[in-house]
Amino acid sequence: MVKVDLDHIYKEYPDAQEGVYAVSDFDLHIQDQEFIVFVGPSGCGKSTTLRMIAGLEDITKGDLKIGGQVMNDVAPKDRDIAMVFQNYALYPHMTVFDNMAFGLKLRKYEKADIKKRVDEAAEILGLTDYLDRKPAALSGGQRQRVALGRAIVRDAPIFLMDEPLSNLDAKLRVTMRAEIAKLHQRLKTTTIYVTHDQTEAMTMADRIVVMSMGKVQQIGTPAEVYDRPKNEFVAGFIGSPAMNFFNVHLKDGFVSDGKGLNLQVPEGRLKILEDQGYDDKDLVLGVRPEDIHAEEAFIETFPKATAKTTVVVSELLGAESMLYARVDQTEFVARVDARDYHKPGDNLEMAFDLNKAHFFDKETTDAIYSSATANDEQ
Amino acid sequence: MIEEKKTHNVGKYILLTVGGILILIPLLVTLFSSFKTTKDIMANFFAWPKPFTLDNYQRLLADGVTHYFLNSAIITVVSVLLVMLIVPMAAYSIARNISKKRAFSLMYTFLILGIFVPFQVIMIPITVQMSKLGLANMYGLMLLYLTYAIPQTLFLYVGYIKMSVPVSLDEAAEIDGANKITTYFKIVFPMLKPMHATTLIINALWFWNDFMLPLLILNTDNKMWTLPLFQYNYQSQYFSDYGPSFASYVVGIVTITIVYVIFQKNIIAGMSNGAVK
């Protein structure tokens, strides 16, 4: 049973300006066997946080606890963690077997035990036939497996993975993603996984930590961060293609961006907005591409939340198609059924499902939810 | 297009062949001359060794070439090993800290500056200094070789470590439970193999063939002579004993060529390895 607690952790680099933190007030409590994904754009501090957990970076402020014990000043090797690096970091002059056995040898395991553990890990990862090869003679996917194997053999209760799939090609990445997920189900090791790819985060995580500019933006299950993003950043970062944002003004039950978009807000949503004093105020409206529809049925359902649009670019993806469209000067993307294919230049009416839309405060960029549910979240 | 390329290639081959011949001729003359008597050499410098004689080599043995050969070998091997023991270690710590700590970049700059000091400038002071220190002997010479090899060798190692030994390997080793020393000897040092081979060849070639430093440091006692000093012994102001001279050159050339051939393969072999990506 290993819990990892990050109590208000800060990281300040020595050559940084006073008070400028690479990571600030990172507060997270990871349960045993949980699969946590840190996600965010590059430079958001996610790797730095992972490296602080590993002990490769010092913690400026705050406590890191593993299994309840403060680990701030404990050497990496004594933290009982295993780490997989972005570039694999395999020892090129050693065979696959020796790569996996290196950590065990240093920890003075019995020879027979080392062999048993390495053979087991190789079996799990399908590397049995490659144990005598050097990393140079392996493909990218196989090297990544060796890196995983090096973590597995140690039987460490915590795995740290720093963008392990970003060096692989797209197809292999999907395969390895599933393999890592399977591995986690099998070994039940507490895992902290860093990625900039929101798809990886959504598909693998028990809980996602969305980060930006050194700060945690939201912590939640994939469904939570997708359906109830805390602010504009999270809403825009999670989901592909990204959520459409419109700068709008709310008046008389309609939101309008003054550039051609004029949509009626459903009653329930309107009440929440009005209750919080947003009537006759500027807001940011966020609508996910899949909540914009071109089908007749939807246009009839939301007769006052439609717009006459012109298709600019149309991407057919097989099962669905992406329509990049325009209303006067306002551009947005809609994800529609593939049968609903339209050529660039086509004029068509589209309906915006504002029941599923998100509203954000213009100043704070925080999402506006009813105060009742907002209290629930606390 | 293909035609054009072919003619281009022909030109290249001609150039290379001529170059090859120009280099080979003096080597062949040396080799042939070593099997001729001094009188024959004087008579016709480029002629085929006829009569073929091993007298020159026998003369070398009689003059005690083995002793001087061993002197040279010991000095070269020990100096090269000293350089390989000390310089990569220094290079590792400099390469890893140069961007973080000013002391390391100053140290590096200071050591590299040695490249720009011509030997002739410090030749006399060094001689005086070494004899005052009681180091005008083989040990002193090895120490000097180590010192003179540092700038260039360090420069090569630091560049190589920065380029080819990713920090993530150190970190992986650290998490695996290795301390700095284990990491250096088990991970970093073996990965420097191509650079070991390169510096070994450069330094061995230099130490083996060097004439000036041994002349300045070791000339106090002919027991300490190296092979090049011994070779010099066959030449005087009015007379050069070409036969044994050439034979001794062949001995020197063959030895260092063997070293080169052995390690040159390692340079290429070590270039392609798959640490990352």
TrEMBL record, chain A:
Residue ranges annotated for the ABC transporter domain, each copy included: 4-238
GO biological process terms, semicolon-separated: carbohydrate transport
UniProt key word Transport: yes
GO terms under cellular component: ATP-binding cassette (ABC) transporter complex, substrate-binding subunit-containing
Single GO molecular function: ABC-type transporter activity
UniProt keyword terms in alphabetical order: ATP-binding, Nucleotide-binding, Transport
Superkingdom classification of source: Bacteria
CDD domains: ABC_MalK_N (cd03301)
A Pfam match: OB_MalK
Keyword Magnesium: no
Name of the protein in question: MsmK
Name of the gene this protein is made from: msmK
Automatic annotation (TrEMBL), chain B:
Topological relation to the membrane, as annotated: Multi-pass membrane protein
Gene coding for it: msmG
Protein name per its UniProtKB record: MsmG
Ranges for domain ABC transmembrane type-1: 69-263
Transmembrane parts of this sequence: 12-35, 68-94, 106-126, 138-160, 246-263
Keywords: Cell membrane, Membrane, Transmembrane, Transmembrane helix, Transport
Recorded superkingdom: Bacteria
Pfam families (UniProt xref): BPD_transp_1
GO terms for biological process, alphabetical: transmembrane transport
One GO CC term, this protein: plasma membrane
Family: Belongs to the binding-protein-dependent transport system permease family.
Subcellular location, record wording: Cell membrane
InterPro entries listed in its UniProt record: BP-dep_ABC_trans_perm (IPR050901), MetI-like (IPR000515), MetI-like_sf (IPR035906)
SUPFAM superfamilies: MetI-like
